[in-house]
Amino acid sequence: MQSKSTTNEAKQGNPSMDDPWMNDSETPERETGSEWMRYVRVFGTFARNSLVRDMTFRANFVIECVSSIGWTLMNVGFYLIIFQFTGSIGADTGWDRERFFLFLATTWFINSIVQAFFMPNAEEFSELIRTGGLDFALLKPIDTQFLISFRRVSWSSLANFLAGLVIAGVALSRLATREVDPHIPSVLSLVLYVLFCMCGVVIMYSLMICLSATSIWLGRNQTLYNFWFYITNFSRYPMEIYNRGWGTPMYGFFTFVVPVLVVVNVPARLLAKPIDPRTNEEWMLVGWALIATVLSVTFSRWVFRRALGSYRSASS
């Protein structure tokens, strides 16, 4: 009979006997799934810690939520005043009051997610470089871009997401029950809407991580939020208003070079207007949104890794 000490020695000599993840029967699919779950657990820890921190200062959290909702209500009031004098945003664009408020709700969905999960981390990136915190991030046994992007969550920014749900619900209800040109989105429209909202979030994140990465070369990038606000302003309106006159170059640039116009326009069109009939140009725009998402992620990843390659320790 083999002694207990001999068994322990055998285990020490063969690590796979101690670690079930090192068995010969381990498959690449299982390793990949385990890696994904590890990142999900890490993100869950980040989100939970951020919520605990926000709840520690409840008054500040409530004030931030009220401030966000107040800004949303002012926007709603502003556009309600505009629609007292016009039937649509832009001549012959099809963006009447109900459809445009669906457009606005889509804007709030996407921007609130970006501001909740990515903006706080992007704003702190230059501070990590200045204080040497990036040195510690590089030593962690996890992807640096993931760590930099998700370490903090601003839960109060999701107040606009809830406001967007209310606005979208009211707009859809009025759109479905009105006498002239009623519209009820199909299940396919809803599925595509969610998919392309996610694509919009990815494009916005890619733009943000590119802007953040410039902090490594510039030292400090305190104008990040201002520049972000200027760029995203173009995505807050239907793209048809740019596709005429002197706005045509802007339409081309912000559709095909920095594709912020497809971020909100594509999902909002899919929800607010019937799937069929659609022109070939509209379907090409939908296809371009998918391509732009892949290109944006690839390019932002390349920029971030290139920037990290230029990084020198804060102590050097």
TrEMBL record:
Where are the stretches annotated Disordered? 1-30
What protein name does the entry list?
Membrane protein
UniProt biased composition (Polar residues): 1-15
Which keywords label this protein? Membrane, Transmembrane, Transmembrane helix
Q: Which InterPro entries match?
A: ABC-2_transporter-like
Membrane-spanning segments: 61-85, 100-120, 158-176, 188-211, 251-271, 283-304
